[in-house]
Design goal:
This protein has helices spanning about 1-10, 40-50, 70-80, 100-105, 120-130. It has about 140 residues and is mostly helical. The chain has one domain. The chain is globular.
Length: about 140
């Protein structure tokens, strides 16, 4: 049932039916900051790349794909808490989290953020936060 729901979630957003886990994530990567708290990941990576008011797809005004990253609390809830279909982040498993699949995708229709990928240190910071349990 869970596999069906995960596949359905990808179909809803127009993505390939099955996106494999990211195979080459390196936990020895160099994060943008050593502070891997949600508050720091949010302010350092999420706001600057996805949620800047007036210019980003997932700011409160836009909420593209129904994802509102406009404030820290809502962003965490929408990324980590289970949705009707599937969670976007699997705490403790960055490689199989939809967020990391999108960050590392070569498919322009699936990659996030579109046309402006995260830097390696930004991606590393998100990866290490997820692998550490994605705590609030």
């Amino acid at each position: 049932m869970r596999a069906f729901l995960a596949a359905a979630s990808l179909l809803v957003v127009g993505c390939p039916a099955e996106v494999p886990c990211v195979a080459d994530l390196d936990d020895a990567c160099a994060p943008l900051s050593q502070d891997l708290s949600w508050s720091n990941v949010y302010s350092t990576v999420v706001v600057s790349s996805c949620a800047s008011p007036g210019v980003s797809c997932h700011a409160t005004e836009g909420s593209a794909g129904g994802l509102d990253l406009g404030d820290e609390e809502t962003a965490w809830e929408q990324l980590v808490e289970p949705l009707d279909i599937a969670a976007r982040i699997v705490p403790g498993d960055a490689s199989c989290s939809d967020v990391m699949k999108r960050v590392h995708s070569d498919d322009a229709n699936y990659q996030m953020p579109p046309s402006s990928p995260l830097s390696d240190p930004q991606s590393c910071m998100v990866q290490l936060w997820i692998d550490a349990g994605a705590a609030r």
